[in-house]
Design goal:
Helix content is 59%, strand content 8%. It is of the alpha+beta class. The strands form three sheets. A five-stranded antiparallel β-sheet has the order 7-8-11-9-10. It has a three-stranded mixed β-sheet with strand order 1-2-3.
Length: 702
């Protein structure tokens, strides 16, 4: 019996075949588009300037929408915690006391869990992290920072935490720029420029100030005023400003009154305002890092610390609700003279403490808006006092509030050009330039004298990064003694007779020996120069003089975990070419030797690696994807998959230099390219850039 299928409606049987044909055509068309874009990108790469401009435009667009999206997230966070997206003092004062007390605590708890679980680097403003990525990691920032920073900072600000949104927006923009650069496999020099483009786009979109956004990136993020880096940064800043104005309107960040300047005698008062701004900045930076040290030294788990800081902010907010959030409403009140001097001073000290609690405990937010808040309240208070003392020739308090904003920002960030341009772009009035420049320069000069590091570089200094010392010191600081020390060292007892000591020094592989006591504790070092004076009498003193008598007991020792910049300082203070390496315990047992030549060789290798990422783009393109190129003599540079035997091993354990005769120059991992640190652990899927002879490299996979 034959069973026929039910009749198919007209056209239905042909539909699947039609869909398959359409899908194939779409796939072919999409592939053609991708290939066309890739070819266009390759052509643009051949003209470096065009490539930088095109990418800068793209980063400006993405950075602007990142800033707009972050502002929407903050509004959503306001609604989540406070039931309204309008964050005003009136709405805060209408809340029950218990909500004002516990809302910042709840937001801090959420932020602590996010930071602890996903990305510890999104704590604080994020600007030091951007500066460190530019200085030490070639501009590499993890891609997850874009989302985690946005969420964590929005929760901090939206729940009432005392922090700004400018730092997070700059961090988000920088992460976008870094992500774009990594996706394009840009060189380290271009990647750093893209990071600065993203930061500039974020600042420009926030303040509606394209010039200030560009100068912030150049002055703070890059610390480099070279014209070659400036063009793409300015382009990104302008593009972000245009998009921001299209969506948010052509309005400045603050409602600024017209500036007035009554008399040239006021310049003396503005110089005094610069002095006051330097004092406030000094207190702000020190209080912030004292709070950081207190929380980090506590026994509280890291994820709980922002909640405790938020509880402290809530306690302050019970009496002074204007310390909550960004504080733009209070800044506008100070600019328009709608608040008295007593209230303004109370707000100043309350904001100091609230910001220190929010950011010191691990909250996510910027220091830019708090600096503007402190400057506005300080300047307006100062203006009220000046008006009382000199009523006939002083301007309104709002004029001093404007200048105070620039002065405190300049003193806190050590970026006077950025501070001057931000205030100027807020007013568009040239009359403000003389007093503004005088106050900002005075504040910066005094703050640098009292506090060498800015609010950003102090965080870097605590991590061992000193941007002002140049890359030489930073390269040495990235290396440890354990990476260059020799495990074999000649050790002699303190009671060894002079004759035997001379025999040991003459027959050893090195002309020095380390002198230890009976318990193996390091006492000093000895070499042939130490026994030169007694050599003529050595036949008579062979048994009377012992090693302890001729040893140099002032020769310092190092530890395996010491950084090489410190070791070079030790070499500079002594006449020794080698120093002993002792264990970390109290026994001071000699475990190795570090020589001056080994430190110099390690520095040269790291400098070569650094230059490879910056200047040898064509070489990197040649070896990318499995190729190789001859770079010097019979040495070959090649990129390969990490050998299976290295997976799960650290670089120190794999020891490719000794076992295989090759040098690992760079390591490509999921998070980007890295210099090969001794403790770096290889994982499956990693790529390594090797330097060695063709035979040695070939044995590992080429």
């Amino acid at each position: 019996m034959e069973i026929n299928p039910p009749p198919t409606p007209a056209g239905r049987g042909r539909a699947p075949r039609l869909l398959r044909r359409l899908r194939k055509r779409f796939t072919r068309g999409r592939s053609a588009v991708v290939e066309y874009l890739a070819a266009g990108l390759h052509r643009a790469r051949s003209r470096e300037h065009i490539f930088l401009v095109l990418v800068a435009i793209a980063i400006g667009v993405l950075g602007a929408y990142g800033a707009i999206g972050f502002r929407l997230l903050v509004k959503g966070s306001h609604w989540l915690f406070l039931g309204s997206d309008q964050y005003t003092l009136a709405s805060l004062e209408a809340l029950p006391w218990w909500r004002r007390l516990f809302t910042p605590c709840l937001g801090g708890l959420a932020v602590g869990l996010i930071v602890w679980r996903f990305a510890p680097e999104v704590r604080g403003s994020g600007i030091p992290e951007v500066m460190e990525s530019v200085a030490r990691r070639g501009g590499t920032i993890r891609k997850r920072v874009v989302l985690t920073k946005a969420v964590a900072a929005a929760l901090t600000i939206g729940s009432g935490g005392s922090a700004g949104r400018e730092g997070p927006i700059a961090h988000i923009g920088a992460a976008i720029g870094s992500t774009v650069g990594q996706w394009l496999q840009a060189s380290a020099q271009s990647l750093r420029t893209f990071v600065a483009c993203g930061a500039a786009a974020g600042i420009a979109a926030t303040f509606n100030a394209p010039i200030a956004g560009a100068l912030f990136s150049i002055e703070v993020v890059l610390a480099d005023l070279r014209v070659a880096s400036m063009s793409p940064i300015v382009i990104s800043s302008v593009v972000a400003t245009v998009i921001s104005r299209h969506h948010l309107g052509d309005f400045p960040a603050f409602d600024v009154p017209g500036y007035e300047w009554r008399s040239a005698r006021e310049l003396l008062l503005y110089a005094g305002l610069g002095l006051s701004a330097a004092l406030v900045s000094l207190g702000f930076v020190r209080l912030l890092y004292r709070s950081t040290d207190t929380f980090e030294g506590s026994r509280l788990p890291p994820w709980l610390r922002p909640a405790v800081g938020g509880l402290g902010v809530g306690l302050i907010g019970l009496a002074l609700p204007l310390v909550f959030g960004v504080g733009y409403e209070t800044i506008n009140a100070a600019l328009w003279g709608r608040a008295g001097a007593v209230i303004l001073l109370g707000a100043l000290f309350g904001k100091l403490l609230a910001t220190a609690l929010t950011l010191g405990s691990g909250g996510s937010g910027g220091v830019f808006a708090p600096s503007l808040f402190l400057g506005a309240t300080l300047g307006a208070s100062y203006g009220h006092l000046a008006r009382e003392l000199f009523p006939t020739w002083t301007a309104a308090p709002g004029a001093y509030a404007l200048v105070g904003m620039g002065a405190v920002v300049a003193a806190t960030t050590h970026a006077p050009i950025t501070a001057i341009l931000i205030v100027f772009e807020l007013t568009n009035d040239y009359r403000i330039i003389p007093p503004l420049m005088l106050a900002c320069v005075t504040a910066v000069l005094l703050s640098v004298q009292w506090q060498k590091e800015s609010v950003y570089t102090e965080s870097l200094r605590r991590r061992g990064v000193r941007l002002g010392e140049g890359r030489d010191i930073n390269l040495l600081r990235s290396l440890q003694v354990a990476e260059v020390m020799e495990p074999t060292v000649q050790v002699v007892g303190a009671s060894l007779p002079l004759g035997d000591l001379l025999t040991a020094l003459m027959s050893g592989t090195r002309p020095e020996a380390m002198v230890v006591d009976r318990g193996g504790r390091y006492l000093g070092s000895v070499d042939l120069s130490d026994v030169r004076e007694v050599l003529p009498e050595s036949s008579h003193l062979a048994t009377l003089v012992v090693a302890a008598d001729v040893a140099d007991h002032s020769t310092p020792f190092t530890l395996a975990g010491d950084r090489l910049d410190g070791v070079m300082h030790l070499f500079g203070r002594t006449h020794r070419d080698a120093l002993p390496v002792c264990d970390d315990g109290d026994s001071r047992r000699v475990v190795g030797l570090v020589t001056k030549q080994a430190v110099i060789d390690a520095y040269n290798r790291r400098l070569f690696q650094h230059d490879l990422t910056e200047g040898f783009d064509s070489v990197m393109e040649s070896v990318r994807g499995g190729g190789s190129v001859q770079v010097a003599g019979d040495l070959t540079l090649a990129e390969i998959d990490v050998p299976a035997a290295w997976v799960g091993c650290s670089l120190r354990r794999a020891d490719p230099r000794r076992r295989h005769g090759v040098e690992v120059v760079l390591v490509q991992q999921q998070g980007g390219r890295h210099f090969p640190e001794a403790d770096l652990v290889f994982a499956a899927g990693d790529r390594v850039l090797l330097l060695g002879t063709p035979q040695a490299v070939g044995r590992l996979g080429i």
